[in-house]
Amino acid sequence: MAAKKDYYEILGIDKKASKDDIKKAFHKLAHKYHPDKNSGDADKFKELSEAYSTLSDDKKRAEYDSYGRTFGGGGQGGFERGGFDFSQFQDAFSQGGFGEFDFSDAFGDFFSGGGRTQRGRDISIDLEISFKESVFGTKRAVLLAKTAQCETCKGNGAEPGTSLETCTKCNGAGKIHETTNSFFGSISMTRACTTCRGTGKVPKQKCRTCRGEGVYKKQEEIEIVVPPGISGGEMIRLTGAGEAIAGGASGDLYVKIHVTSDPRFKKEGINLMTDLSVKLSDALLGAEYKITTLDGEESVSIPQGVSHGETIAIKGHGVSTGRGKRGDLIVRIKINLPQKLSRSAKTLVEKLKEEGI
Description:
The chain has helices at 7-11, 19-33, 42-55, 58-67, 90-94, 103-107, 109-112, 131-136, 280-285, 343-354; strands spanning 80-81, 84-85, 99-102, 123-129, 138-149, 164-166, 175-182, 185-192, 201-203, 215-226, 235-238, 253-259, 266-268, 271-279, 287-293, 296-302, 311-314, 329-336. It is an alpha+beta fold. The strands form seven sheets. The chain has a four-stranded mixed β-sheet. Helix 2 runs antiparallel to helix 3 (42-55).
């Protein structure tokens, strides 16, 4: 049996809370978790709606307080749209209508446009960089064709040197109150004014560049800073670099990184791995080898009697952490055994064998 949900705890209120307290608590949390918001959470919003549906109804609240559940109409379930539970209004529907019901009171800013910050479209692109660039980081400039804020009017839609005036459609309120008739009765809703886009102001003289829209299509060069140590498949987010929208925030630009492979190196955390083939005689006697790193050529000392697969670390030649520190270059020794031996070489090996080597 499922554990009883504590609707009071979900709304963050006391069990003695008034109807007004319940309503205020719901509006505050619903505004925060509405699915259309960046910080939204559809499951949390649904849970809040369920709690509000029960506690805002005297009959359902009494049943919940007594039995931990509600009964009337529960078998039918509630009608949901956009994550909001409308079951709280079922009794009113079944009794023949509301008369005039103001939905803007029940749903707060969600119908008014004030709770939903309008936001431009996000853009996603792919960017290919070299292995070396992924280690040290790099900067790239990309040219995007997108909807951007008008540089002439700075997004307000007015010709420079002219003023804004009060919107006559909404009388400067930025919102339109509408009442429609249905078989439920009269339903009132509040929405953002489309003429002024919710600002309450319109340009007295429209900007010639964007024709009063505040935004227009253009090509824009954007600099992408790729941090050191990035891996293929990682995403870089540039806030506000997406498409602009009049009266709202710009979307974001998402850059998916693709790293070309390097046959010499592999990345393991902040270290780089590479293989170095050495001759058998050098492995036995020791030697100095030149090795190519991402910083240039470096000398590495092969110790006498080194084993196949043994590693040697070259400090500070690995992946940059971006804080003045770097990992190491790990050199893995591969002993190159000859496939064929000359007669003299075979004689020498036989002597080594006699020595127990």
